[in-house]
Amino acid sequence: MVELIASISASAAAICRGKIGWTRRVLAWSVCLWTVATTVAFAQCPSPPVTATQQRIERIIDGDTFVLVGGDRVRVLGINTYERNDPERRGAYAKAATQYATQQLQTRVVTLSPYPYRRDRHGRVLAHVWVNGAHLAESLLHEGLGFAVAVPPLTAHAPCLFAAEKRARLAARGIWSEGLAPIAVSALSRGGFAVVEGVVTRVDQRTLWLGAQFAVTLPKGLNIDAGTRIEVRGWIRGPKAGDAPAVFRLPLADPANLQRSVD
């Protein structure tokens, strides 16, 4: 499936650039028009604001990170893709996301908002990214190549990004075709980004416990009852030294990152 996505993307790009014989020009135009129509059909995120700025890309690191001319590393807001060193199929989808982003960013010009903005703990500038008017995170999510995630305070695009992910899930595209997510609480083995599903077994003030080894700290104003099956996502912290049993912890950044599951 991953290889098919990459192959289709490369083939479509070659056709749209006109790298074919004259006898296939009509087919080329059909493919190009279909690509444009599909993009318009799924696009729901707003266009860049008038305050957005254009920048040039020097190199692409992976599906959600690239380097600008001048040296700033940019982390695309609203999405998380698998890492290249992730095992097995996860690593394959990281490669597919990188290939897709590389294809989308072939003009080497992006529109960023806000920019410059605050940096994350890795020194990367956080920004929403558009390419030729299309929201990059939305495009990746539509193809099933990443996970929507709300990072406050820049959460205005969360509804359209989660909607793009939902369409990919319903269509079983990309990641959602192989049952890679969500994972069960019992499958947690390390920290890092994850989408986890389970039943709330205990509520301790603002902390939800899903069994004895996974604790989710809720933002203020969000209340969930014991017995509720939920799906949560974000950057999970591994067990602390001295934890017995080992406890994984997720400080929930935004209410959008929690959804009540339907059995």
Features:
four-stranded mixed β-sheet; OB fold (Dihydrolipoamide Acetyltransferase, E2P); alpha+beta; five-stranded mixed β-barrel; 5 helices; disordered N terminus; 27% strand; 27% helix; globular
End-to-end C-alpha gap = 28 Å
Radius of gyration: 20 Å
Give the second-level CATH assignment, the architecture of the largest domain: Beta Barrel
CATH class of the largest domain: Mainly Beta
Task: Provide an overview of this structure.
- It is a single chain.
- With 263 residues, the chain is an alpha+beta fold.
- The protein contains five helices and 16 strands.
- It has a five-stranded mixed barrel with strand order 1-2-3-6-5. Strands 9-10-14-16 form a four-stranded mixed beta sheet, with no helix packed on it.
- The chain is globular, with a radius of gyration of 20 Å.
- Residues 1-17 and 22-40 have low confidence and may be disordered.
Which SSEs are present, and which pair or pack?
Elements: H1 2-16, H2 25-42, E1 53-62, E2 65-68, E3 73-76, E4 79-80, H3 88-104, E5 109-113, E6 125-131, E7 134-135, H4 136-142, E8 147-148, H5 158-171, E9 183-184, E10 192-199, E11 202-204, E12 207-209, E13 214-217, E14 229-236, E15 248-251, E16 258-260
Parallel strand pairs: 3-6, 9-10, 13-15
Antiparallel strand pairs: 1-2, 1-5, 2-3, 4-8, 5-6, 6-7, 10-14, 11-12, 12-13, 14-16
Helix pairs in contact: 1-3, 4-5
